[in-house]
Design goal:
Two copies of one chain form a homodimer.
Chain A (H helix, E strand, L loop, with lengths): L1 E3 L2 H7 L2 H16 L8 E7 L6 E11 L4 E12 L2 E2 L2 E2 L2 E3 L9 E7 L5 E6 L1 H19 L6 E5 L3 H13 L4 E5 L3 H15 L2 E4 L3 H5 L4 E4 L18 E4 L7 H6 L2 E4 L10 E2 L7 H12 L9 H5 L13 E4 L5 H17 L4 E3 L11
Parallel strand pairs in A: 1-9, 2-16, 10-11, 10-13, 11-12, 13-14, 14-17, 15-17
Antiparallel strand pairs in A: 1-18, 2-3, 3-4, 4-7, 4-8, 5-6, 8-9
Helix pairs in contact in A: 2-3, 2-10, 3-4, 3-10, 4-5
Chain lengths: ~350, ~350
């Protein structure tokens, strides 16, 4: 049977520690050359409705030690409204019932069969946050206790428990443009994690003096600047462009997620279609192209590259453009626990297989 | 609702003419720059079982004029046995029930929602054969009546009706290594199409004197050679390497499917893993790299490039490494007809959508 799972299943049974452990194992496999980080492709077109852009995205990857491959699909209607003084990327929930479309399909590498199908929402943010947490684990100071979080949305909500899983955090200062939203977010996260959360009046106020700075926004522009950060800090971002190039340049150690992510060749759009995200990314990629030789997180995790040389280092982990093997890793942990606990809806595997040589 | 369809549905309701028409419209969109041909990624690893290689493949593409995007996934256990004097690529049916795993997901570009999910088998060979047929339609001589077919497997089975849809074919000579198989195939195809089919004792015997030569094999090596073909013929292949480089070089006009397919950057394998297909493809790609500027089928279809200048031209269409927009086109035709005829199993779209911003 193929297991159909939900975001609620993932939220209820997959713990952040399990997710981080699965990701860490997968990164070790990547370093050893046995895992396949996977391809990435983004196709865009007009929607035919005049509002926004249609984007069809696919990631894939294989983690042999977990026995799975995964493909993650996003079928999005994208817009870029101005908000809070900057441009944000917003996905419109246009599917029936006002819903979004993101899917993960998990496959068994010994039989090829589809093991599970589930929406990507919860697992997607857990693997992003879990990867940021691995950056913190291997790069931040051991004695880091004060963190800043820029963003209070879906991704930010997973960064807090992930951070707390790897460092003994006492205080998190959070900024996002909407005061009511950041206030509510801090209350919610404090209740969930038991860590003190303070809404900050500006990004700068949140960041100054913090040991760890997490950017987790949908912003198209920079949200973290050089002047706010000092020696000993660890900074990280989940989107290309969140950290101003000068801040990245100031870091003593910059670690990237994967070199494939520095190339722009994975976007496939008709000429003439304006994609704000892409044009911005292209610019910042140009400025940052000397990062192509930067150490990757996988090598830091196995000790092949240094994540930090001294307590005075300013360290930076660029956790953007994730790869499919992260979904294979987190998906395997989720699927196995769901199977063990009898979760999910069993669908006939024959629905998704065939009796002809394809 | 999301429609779950089967290979039987496709076989029974999607006609070759409908498939060719949908593909032709999509190629016109490609020429006009409004369709997105789409990305392609192949990830491979060991299977953990010692037999063969696990390959996870994804294609995607968008055809705005049909309002759909598609992703096609293959989750294969690959082996390369020796057979009939050559090496063939064979996908092992290891999924429960001895089945293969190939899936197409079709999405609505105005809402993002998944419209349909179906196995790829029948649609996949119909879009390959339909594309070969478009090559014949725009490149072969109008008065072509005698064809040669090398191969008698799954792909070959669709090439015969596709060819007969675009030219008034009187005779097809078919060769494949197994005499009993090619005999049975000829009987089956003759009954299906009403065209005379003759099993040939060798590939050369099938090819000599033919107006059109179709290669539709799983062979890793060359199956069609320069000396067998003369002026006025049209030759085509569905796999890189089927046509010997000298035969391609001899053609007056060579048309390729898409320039993206001449690059090798879409294969992602751990070091040390032996992939016979890849090593062979890399070699032939090197030999053929001057094809990067060759005209593409889409431009031939809209008349921007010539498919043939005279009846004496030897023409060649290289129909390999298909792209996702073919699945969007053929899938749209299939889905609409299935919906109109009340075919398929309706699954709740909520199973494949979510209420969180992914």
């Amino acid at each position: 049977m193929t297991l159909l799972l939900t975001n609620e299943d993932a939220d209820e049974i997959l713990t952040m520690n399990e997710c981080i452990d699965a990701l860490e194992g997968a990164y070790r496999d990547i370093s050893r050359g046995i895992a396949t980080p996977g391809g990435r492709s983004v196709m865009v077109s007009e929607t035919g409705q005049g509002d926004g852009v249609y984007a069809l995205k696919m990631l894939g990857g294989i983690v042999p030690s977990l026995g799975v491959g995964a493909i993650r699909i996003n079928s999005d209607i994208l817009t870029w409204p101005e908000s809070g003084g900057g441009m944000r990327r917003v996905k419109l929930p246009k599917a029936p019932g006002g819903r979004w479309v993101g899917l993960v399909l998990l496959f068994d590498i010994t039989t090829g069969e589809p093991l599970a199908i589930f929406p990507d929402g919860v697992v997607q943010r857990m693997r992003v946050a879990g990867t940021s947490a691995l950056g913190v684990k291997y790069m931040a100071r051991e004695d880091a206790t004060i963190a800043a979080l820029i963003g209070s949305g879906w991704q930010a909500g997973s960064q807090v428990p992930a951070l707390c899983a790897v460092r003994d955090i006492k205080l998190i200062r959070c900024f996002s443009p909407n005061a009511a939203r950041r206030q509510a977010f801090c209350q919610e996260m404090a209740a969930k994690t038991g860590v003190e959360m303070i809404p900050a009046p500006s990004a700068e106020a949140a960041v100054r003096g913090a040991d760890i700075v997490l950017c987790a926004t949908n912003s198209v522009g920079n949200v973290l600047y050089r002047d706010w950060i000092g020696p000993g800090a660890h900074i990280t971002a989940i989107r290309d462009g969140e950290i101003a190039p000068a801040a990245i340049a100031a870091a003593d150690i910059v670690v990237i997620h994967h070199p494939a992510n520095l190339s722009a060749d994975h976007i496939d759009a008709p000429e003439g279609l304006t994609i704000p995200d892409q044009s911005r990314e292209a610019t910042s990629r140009d400025e940052l192209k000397d990062l192509s030789g930067a150490p990757v997180l996988a090598d830091v995790i196995i000790g092949k590259a240094a994540g930090r040389n001294s307590d005075a280092d300013l360290t930076c982990f660029l956790n953007y453009h994730g790869l499919g093997f992260q979904f294979a890793a987190a998906g395997a942990a989720f699927f196995r626990k769901a199977r063990a606990e009898g979760r999910g809806r069993e669908l006939p595997t024959e629905w998704f297989t065939e009796d002809v040589h394809p």
